[in-house]
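hey can u check if this looks right to u? its 732 residues, i copy pasted from the old doc so theres a chance i mangled smth
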Amino acid sequence: MRDPLDDPVLLRSLVESSPDFVAIADFGGAILWVNPAGLDLVGLSGATDARGMTAEQMLTARGLDVVTDIDESLRSKGSWRGYSELRHQASGAGIPVVVSLHVVRGGPGMPDLVAATLRDRRSGERLNTEMAASAAQAGRHAQEQKALAELSRIAVNAELPQLLTAATAAAATLIGSGQAAIAHHRSPGDPYLQIDAASGSLGTRGDIPAGNGSLMGFALTNREAVVCPDIDSETRFETRTMATLGLRSGMAVPVLTATGEAWGVLSTHSADARWYRDEEVSFLDSVAGILSAAVRRIDLQGQLRRRSTHDALTGLPNRTLAYEVIDAALERARVASSAVALLLLDIDDFKIINDSLGHVSGDHALVHFVARLTSATRDQDTVARLGGDEFLIVCEGVDSVSHAEDIARHITSSIAVPFSSDEVPIPLSASIGIAVSDSTTTRHDLINRADLAMYRAKDGGTGGHAVFDPTDLYDADRIRSLSIDLRAALAGNELTLVYQPLVDIATERTVAVEALARWEHPTLGAIDPTEFVGVAERTGLAMTLGAWALRTACADAVRWRSFCTVAVRVNVSALQLRDPTFPADVALILRDTGLPPHALGLEVTETVWVSDTERVADTVAELHAMGVALLLDDMGKGHSSMSYLDRYPMFESFKIDKSYIERLPAPGARAIVTAIVGLARAFGVTVVGEGVETREQLDALAAAGCDLAQGFLLGRPSTAPEITELLRSTSR
């Protein structure tokens, strides 16, 4: 293939098509040939016009300054490179050029020539100007992107005021010659926008006219970006505010919410009339977009915060927020050397209302209760719902315990008036425990003391209040200590069961025994069953204690039934009955011990049944279906058990409360016992009289038609071996 450099036509074409001035001259400086671009650059129409022209004709006076240097360099080095200035042949104007000259040696008999390439420096200057402008724009863009990135970073966690300040600073620095502002509507219809953050002269204003009264108001109302190059030609909105502040131009963009509503407006201004570039409008709109996202984030966090710190039903602060309020109140009290009163309030017998009327009516009752409670407290008090029917009231600025008691009395009297639900009057009362802080009191101390006082208030009856007494701490310490020892006693099988006979009044034969738990403490001696059962229920040991008693009693009964038909009765707690797995636990114990279900009787107190009927009815019905006998204890002690008997006919026996038995044979007590026996006959169940201690009481029960009796007259609680001997002697 032929080398292209050997083709003179191709080489000439390349030279002629060059955009630079290309020429051939002799060694004396006379022009021999110029390419079309060169002719056009100096204003010549053809190559013949340039032929023969000298350097003096082709160059300006400034350009001729380098001719001597050119001549010397060409003769010594064969080349020269530098700057010169061509003359435009028509206008005489100078054309700055970069010159590159090379000596082309002639062949034999041929003269040496000079090849010249001249490049117009003006095109490079224009390119440099454009490049400088482009670099400046790129620099501004980089600054804007850096500012947006920083705002985005701040927007992730910052509070709104901090973010708004950063946003106005960015807008003022990059666009507004130090003038920027953010404002929002304080309320719908307000004639002014509230300025939230501002720089420059806008920072001297607290508000800005809304609507068409200002640039910011106009942009907010129309929910679109608005540019005002010069207030002198502005007709869309009032410009007095800008003129007063010495501002001539500006632009504003709205900050929108998640639903597209206008939350606020961001603006930037200048003291001079000017047109804002599209890039500047876009930057301001991007800042507004970051603010919009932050407003949505803060609004959502506020909603989530409220959900996590407020009760869904009543809207009151919940336990989490209540604890924060107490901590803050105690800190303020320490600084001010004042006191904080904590009132812990529990609605009396609310489970009865909930179960008898249903949870919907129960919720309705709670809402009404809260309305009364909040109206009975002071404006500075905080009312919180801890859960269920338990509430907490934080009272600051309390100067004495009697002052706190006055607040409690006012609350008690305000909530005492019954309200109606579906035309049924519902009486409400509450027990209140009061604790007042001192300089060293912690939140835990205050809550614990109010809790102890509330339990003491409940012990005194419904609708009362009690103030924390240091002796309450002794009770609490004893409960804690006993709970530790009781747990160890259960693990070490240190508790025992004793059994009290239930006697058929007609035959005087023992037909059943009731299991009763006993605890002989190694250092404290015998612990009253009422106390340690109460400790078990308050410290989470009730289920363990109940399961132990049930399994032990069933195992003992199996041994007795090898020679007699005696049944065993065991008391069950409300916690056991509320546990949906309790029937399965009973079935497992019966299977493990081999006791037939009909030989087991479970005693449920009337109080538990009435207060928890709806919650325990399914459990009781399941036990009944298993064949386990169910007995209603303390009959006549409750308020409204009669209404439940027809709806839940699964009880096989009623046990008359001993408070009636001990008054026999008095006429009033006799009438009550006779009425209970009559009620039992109507429902086809047997009746037991408990606490029988005299022959007169037993005779009165027999006369009333009572079936069974239990008490010291008929047999004291005895150990399992003692009961074994009793049963063997009566079964012969």
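The chain has four domains: 4-126, 158-306, 319-468, 500-514+541-731.
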